[in-house]
Amino acid sequence: MKMKNILLTLCISFLIAGTACAQKQQEGFLIKGKISGLTGKSFDRLLCSMSNKLTRDLPSITIGENGTFEYRDTLDVDGVKSVNFILMTAVTGGNGSMGIRTYTKSFYVRNGDIITIEGDKMEFPWLKVSGNKYNDQLTEFILAIKDQRIHYNKLLEEQKTMKRSSDPDLEKRKSVLPDKIESARKQFVKALQNFLSRNPNNHSNDLVLSVNSEALKFDELQLAYNTLRKDHQKSIYGKNIVEKLRSKEQRLKTEEGKNAPDFAKIDKDGNLIRLSDFKGKKYVLLDFWGSW
């Protein structure tokens, strides 16, 4: 009799848990908030992506007059999933021409969550996101590297502006800027690596490393990737990091001053030729062309 009561209690518990899970999935999640500087009248478009891809069929989020918004959706899986908010906004170039710039803010949701987003449009990647413990961990990571990343980004933007300028008074600044950029990059990478090593169980380690991977050199990214948990290495962000590593490794092989990687092709007469066949020749001209 006692065993029957235990089994009955377990069955009821599983039934309640399953019902609660199904109810949560049916409810979906709600993302709401206010982003100052964002208005429905400006050239701003706010999109939501459940993957890492920017496609034409992404749902557009209605923006209120004062930057408020609400977005409801439902995950097709149980548990936590990363979501990307994408801001497409008009910008004016140095020559007065108009262009579109895209910013991305990644965070986590679960069915049943009410996620709140707050901040300023000009700091879109640093928006404050709350509503579950995973976003709290993400915020902790972002705050640990924010100042170094912003400083690094500003120097990169300054370099772009200077390249378009012909002002002779800027020549001295131009000459020292690369060293300043590299110093800022190293400070940022150090802050990122320190957080990863001190917080190996942070749920957002793979996401943040993936988003910032372009700032790391091959050996730095490889070292950081190796500190990730096995499940993070196998996640969608971990796989993206692996692709970045392959790309960086390939670029290392083709840096100026290094031997060109050997390759083979069929010539117009049907003969197989290799780049190494021309070793010792004074000049080898490679013409990569296309027609479009």
Give a description of the structure.
With 292 residues, the chain is an alpha+beta fold. It folds into 2 domains: 27-129, Immunoglobulin-like (Sandwich), CATH 2.60.40; 132-254. Helices cover 42% and strands 21% of the residues. It has 7 helices and 10 strands. The strands form 3 sheets. It has a 4-stranded mixed beta sheet. Strands 3-2-5-6 form a 4-stranded antiparallel beta sheet. Helix 2 (133-163) packs antiparallel against helix 3 and helix 5 packs antiparallel against helix 7 (236-253).
- Tally of domains: 2
- Between the first and last Cα atoms, what is the distance in angstroms? 80 Å
Please outline the major beta sheet. 4 strands, mixed
What is the H/E string? HEEEEEEEEHHHHHHEE
Rg on CA atoms, Å: 25 Å
Total of DSSP H or I helical runs spanning 4+ residues: 7
The portion of residues forming beta strands comes to 15-25%
Q: Average pLDDT, to the nearest integer?
A: 85
Spans of 5+ residues with little confidence (pLDDT < 50)?
7-25
Number of strands: 10
Helix content: 40-55%
Strand order of the largest sheet: 4-1-7-8
